[in-house]
Amino acid sequence: MERIYLDHAATTPMDQRIVDKMMPYFTEIFGNPSSIHSYGREARKWLDEAREVIAGELHCKSHEIILTSGGTEADNLAITGVAMARQHEGKHIITVKTEHHAVLHTCERLEKLGFDVTYLDVDDTGLIDLDQLKQKLRDDTILATIMYGNNETGVIQPIKEIGELLNDHGAYFHTDAVQAFGTMPIDVADDLHIDLLSASGHKLNGPMGTGFLYVSERVKLSPQLFGGEQERKRRAGTENVAGIVGLAEAVQLTKQNRREKAVYYGKLKETMLQVFDEESLNFSINGHPKETLPHILNVYFPGVSIESLLVNLDMEGIAVSSGSACTAGSVLPSHVLSAMYGEEAKELTSSVRISFGLGNEEEHVKQAARKIATVVKRLAK
Ligand SMILES: Cc1ncc(COP(=O)(O)O)c(C=O)c1O
Boundaries of each Aminotransferase class V domain copy (predicted)? Predict the structure, then answer.
């Protein structure tokens, strides 16, 4: 049975060109970049080059990039790093109820340490209300962390307007762009007023365990890992040179084909919805109809249990996800859909996330859509 992978928001297959680029860094250019000898200097050279590539893509300076082990670490470092560095100026942080747990759990930990966190609401399309953000800003607000594009619904927040508001106020603006980076052009030198930005390699057809945090040079940040002077003393630990070279290649390839990818994934999304319509399927889309990432589609199938749907689709070779966390085989209700519709909403137990990416062709998507339609109709009975 041919399997069809439609869970690219969870992780993506690696691009063969990136694998090829990384290979010499495991066996030939294997030095520790902190070593003084030629092996170390060679590794350092490629590490510096990789950092330049990433900085070039964001239009920032290379010393404004901190290489991390992924999006989770970048989010943790951004939020806790700013909280610790600015705690004498204020202890108030603003975030949104629909953030990734890498942000929410970090904020919850800070609450235990005496910080005050405001969790903004979203409307039933998943968007925040800029007036609410404005009202919640206080003199002691030091940071707002608001994601670019949501990992469950794809909903894109009004980043430019948020940046403007925060810039006028003086609170730093961190955005988790882990899902958005692959399809949205992001220029931090532009007028977005982003101070910190997180991204992750494995969402870009690059290696797992890689990512970066952009930190504007004007930002005060306390390190969260200790034991070495790497990353200009902001993130201790020997650098993952092969991974970083792969991450830079992923960023480079993203730059080259971001626009095409966005258009193509948008088309795949339309194809899937068209088949659902042709099959007269009872469904609705979760999330804003326009302000959304092209590769993510979150669909509510009334009367269908999500666990049964995921298991049945897996048996048909279709990999999709609930988008929310799974524990011991059962799916926890999504905090994102809960923030959009309320805790008791039926959408929480009957919605799936379908996400497109490398290797998906129109014909696969049609096939998958037909299989989804068959399973949904069977389970909805
Ligand atoms: C929006 C968002 N933030 C953070 C992360 C965590 O990134 P990583 O898996 O690289 O730690 C993810 C991963 O799914 C994500 O979707």
Answer: 4-367
pLDDT digits (tens, 9 = 90+) for 148-164: 999 999 999 999 999 99
Which residue has the CA at smallest separation from atom 14 of ligand 1? 10
Contact (Cβ atoms closer than 8 angstroms) between residue 175 and residue 199: no
- The alpha carbon of 307 and the centre of ligand 1 are apart by a number of angstroms equal to 22
> Residues 340, 343, 346, CA angle at the centre, nearest 5°?
80
List the domain range (segments joined by +) for residue 66. Answer: 16-253
Q: Which candidate in 260, 326, 361, 378 is catalytic? A: 326
pLDDT digits over 28-65, tens only? 999 999 999 999 999 999 999 999 999 999 999 999 99
Cβ atoms 162, 208 nearer than 8 A: no
Q: Is 107 a catalytic residue?
A: no
Is residue 176 within 6 Å of ligand 1 at its C-beta? yes
Q: Say whether both 201 and 302 belong to one domain.
A: no
Same domain, 30 and 66: yes
